[in-house]
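Posting for a labmate who doesn't have an account.
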Amino acid sequence: MDLQEKRLFVAMELSNKKWMLGFGNGSAERFRTITARDQKTLKFEVKRAKEKLGLPPDCKVVCCYEAGRDGFWIDRMLKQNGYENFVMDPASIEVPRRARKKKTDRLDVKKLLKILLRRELWGELDAFSVVCIPSKGQEAETRIHRERGRLVKERTGHRGRMKSLLALHGILVGNPARAVIADLKDWDGKKLPSSMIAELIREQERLRQVEAQIKLIEQQQAAGLADPQTQGHEKAVKLKGLKSVGLQTSWILSHECFAWRKFANRKKVGSFVGLTGTPHSSGDLNRELGISKAGSARLRALLIELAWGWVRWQPESALTKWYIDKYVRTGNKRGKKVGIVALARKLLVALWKYIEFDIVPEGAIIEA
């Protein structure tokens, strides 16, 4: 028997209550449904599939599933059991272009099994994209800045609600967390209604709690950079040495992009954040549809914000001069906004070279 025939291929369609499993050996298929997260039944079904498909008990098992809500614990569990596993990027999986598409768990797992076979048996490495898997520690570190991001949005919501309520009575305050609600008066010179005061006080308590939690997280981040213990901390410290790169920017870039992800070239760096172009060329038609936006939206927004700061605080750098010569001196306001996206892509590649190969961006200022 050929070595390729001695492998069991397993595709997994995950949901909250049930897992649909698709087994194949390249010529025959078998489908089973088990309770979600039932590892004992999963091992039994793998063993049973080997018997039904005529494979030896010690044959290699190759699994796959789509990245999603369940995260990466399934990948670690499968590898601990001796199985090879691929976590697929859902955006890379081909879908039919009909107006109405059939959608069932069985059809989905059959599709996953088919493209897994295309990759493993027929060598189509571009059949799907594989997600990079962090370690438990690296994954835990990403939770810090993501939690802070949610808290910042929550803080903005609390502040906006308090200011809107006070605007109903003609009152304008700076930071609602520091306002003394009970002493505020409306435009008639009278105190606010008691029900309004009670609501504002409750809202203010939630706002103060959120602000305290944000401050605690920022202190934790600052302590991590003051005494770096992980690769993510070390790379964040290195990034923070560049003028215009602050604590949050360096932390997010390091832990989301550079700490545990590896890029083969600058094109893959740009495509990871969705800042690569989308050409549309067919026959006489030749146009550009803009950036793909297929990567990390969190990093894309951060990089565009960083690009504006880079132009301001790194005026002598080659990247800033390139941006000014090509987009600013034309006098086109829209051109500045379009150009800042191009600068963000170039800046990300420059930071990648700085982190991986110690190539300082030309003309950039490094603070002591």
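Reply:
Got it, the structure tokens are right above this. The longest helix spans residues 194-226.
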